[in-house]
Amino acid sequence: xxxxxxxxxxxxxxxxxxxxxxxxxxxxxxxxxxxxxxxxxxxxxxxxxxxxxxxxxxxxxxxxxxxxxxxxxxxxxxxxxxxxxxxxxxxxxxxxxxxxxxxxxxxxxxxxxxxxxxxxxxxxxxxxxxxxxxxxxxxxxxxxxxxxxxxxxxxxxxxxxxxxxxxxxxxxxxxxxxxxxxxxxxxxxxxxxxxxxxxxxxxxxxxxxxxxxxxxxxxxxxxxxxxxxxxxxxxxxx
Length: 238
Fold this sequence. Notes:
By secondary structure, the chain is an alpha+beta fold.
């Protein structure tokens, strides 16, 4: 009597492997950078797996809800965190280590923060932008000694004067009491040659910076394979 054929079972819809590759957190981080991911997606990368019937992204969302978002989760005692279903001692230890590293970075002295001495220094800090599939604008917020206070993403999409709101661009700079900023955006084509629109928006941003007493020190266009262009060096918009 012939044996019954063994049927291949597809991955249940709730598993991370059933998701399209472009929707998985790790692949999204590799392609777009960590700044694009939600809190739940970043946690999912750390946790790696969920438990039966619950994928790792859903587990991360549950964890954030139970912990009171990231601030509450960071303060949660180890024993309490380890008792949550799907976490356990190993994952609790990884999360505590991650939060402790974040605290130590936040407590770094000013001298330990990166200092920008040239356009190449700024381009190096923003080198991950070369791998982005969409155009994105970021700023490096600097103190009086050109040390980096923060690196916020301020816009995603086509960068030109009709869509980028100048006030929003300076909002984080004012909040961090920055005295200078460096603009940067990428060209997904890989060619960092500035466009007329790049020079035009730089000119508008420099005017706004003068009103706010915040120096616009440069505007970089990030291309592929480590290539970049400094609009300040080329005298475009400055």
